[in-house]
From TrEMBL:
Protein name, UniProt field: DNA ligase D polymerase domain-containing protein
Gene source species: Diploscapter pachys
Domain DNA ligase D polymerase: 2-43
Source organism, top-level taxon: Eukaryota
Database matches in Pfam families: LigD_Prim-Pol
């Protein structure tokens, strides 16, 4: 699930919402880092069942193949693969891992979740990660994701990647506890 803490007062967190929930949300700061436990529960709730899944069917495109003996063209009996996301995902992973020196979670883990995530990314990106990278950058700019360095007047765009970092649930729970602890400490100090 795409959750993202914002560099704004109150540390709001972006979160996916269902269409029915949307009408009851009156502010972009509906959730904050303090709501980490609620957000984790929502991730598996019925409210978000099917989130990110499109009801889309591709047309049945078939290859023209010569029919034996009559010199004419007939339709093949099998659909032609238009785009194989898993093949692109394997190539992307292999290309990336060939350039790393080890100690990389993608290349060293052997976790099939990475291959599945890259296959999903390939299904969105076709074979053009630059296009997806630009879409992500544009979306981050559109929603005002940025940061400011002390002493600088202008806000800088937040550097983002179209490749999400996969974090196990137990590791994420530890991060959520730590963020909540720090938010509480800052609130108590203020």
């Amino acid at each position: 699930m795409p959750y993202s803490a914002r560099a704004r007062a109150g540390a709001p967190v972006s979160a996916p919402v269902s269409w029915t929930e949307l009408r009851d949300i009156d502010t972009a700061a509906r959730w904050t880092v303090r709501d980490a436990d609620e957000l984790l529960k929502r991730a598996t709730s019925r409210a978000l069942a099917g989130w990110g899944v499109a009801d889309q069917v591709l047309p049945d495109v078939r290859c023209a193949a010569p029919k034996a003996g009559d010199g004419r063209t007939a339709m093949a009996t099998q659909a032609a693969p238009i785009f194989d996301a898993e093949t692109h995902a394997r190539r992307w992973i292999a290309d990336y891992c060939a350039r790393t020196r080890g100690g990389d979670v993608l290349c060293d883990s052997g976790d099939p979740a990475w291959a599945a995530m890259f296959a999903e990314l390939a299904s969105v990106a076709s074979d053009d990660l630059d296009h997806v990278r630009e879409r992500v950058r544009r979306h981050a700019a559109d929603i005002g994701t940025g940061f400011r360095i002390i002493g600088e007047a202008d806000e800088r765009p937040w550097p983002v990647s179209p490749v999400p970092l996969l974090i196990e649930a137990d590791e994420w729970a530890g991060i959520a506890r730590g963020v909540t602890q720090r938010a509480d400490a800052w609130s108590n100090a203020a």
